[in-house]
Amino acid sequence: MKKINYIFVVIFVLFSFKSFSQEGYKFTDEFRLQVTSVKNQNRSGTCWSFSGLAFIEAEMVRMGKKEIPDLSEMFVVRHCYMDKAVKAVRMHGHFNFGGGGAFHDVTYVIKNYGMVPDLVCNGLQYGESNHVHGELDEILSNYVKSVIKNKNRKLSTAWKNGFNSILDAYLGVQPKKFDYNGNTYSPKSFAKEIIGVNINDYVELGSYTHHPFYSKFIIEIPDNWMWDYVYNVRLNELKEIIDNALDNKYPVGWASDVSEKGFSYRNGIAIIPDHDLKEMNGSEKAKWEKLSKREKDKLLYKFDKPGVEKTITQEMRQDAFDNYQTTDDHAMLILGKAKDQKGNKYYIVKNSWGKTNKYKGYFYASEAFVLYKTISVMVHKNAIPKKILKKLKIK
Question: What pLDDT is stored for residue 4 in this prediction?
Answer without folding.
Answer: 40
